[in-house]
Design a protein that fits this description.
Blueprint (H helix, E strand, L loop, with lengths): L3 E3 L5 E3 L6 H11 L3 H7 L5 H13 L1 H23 L2 H8 L4
Antiparallel strand pairs: 1-2
Length: 97
């Protein structure tokens, strides 16, 4: 598929940019943005690149959705761990939090 390439960790990138396909997909999913709105928000991407990214997502939707869910769970875990860090416990004990 033109405009998309995979790195050695099998992450999809938009050609000639430093933008991952997942970034465009998350804008589309999280905000409900159309390709045109994504283009407005990321003017450095062509509509062809954006449509290619979205097409790549829909061709590999199960994998992407699984990666998105794994990332969300990792973020939740990290947030929970950070919330109970030694420094936060000391600050809570001192009445600073």
């Amino acid at each position: 598929m033109p405009h998309i390439w995979l790195d050695n960790k099998h992450r999809a990138w938009i050609d000639e940019t430093n933008v991952k396909v997942a970034e465009v997909v998350l804008d589309h999913l999280a905000y409900g943005w159309s390709a045109e709105e994504i283009h407005y928000q990321h003017a450095h991407l062509s509509l062809a690149q954006i449509y290619a990214a979205l097409a790549y997502y829909y061709d590999h939707q199960t994998e992407f959705d699984q990666q998105i869910e794994e990332s969300r769970l990792r973020a939740e875990t990290l947030a929970a761990e950070t919330n109970d860090s030694p420094i936060r416990r000391r600050l809570r004990a001192a009445g600073k939090l």
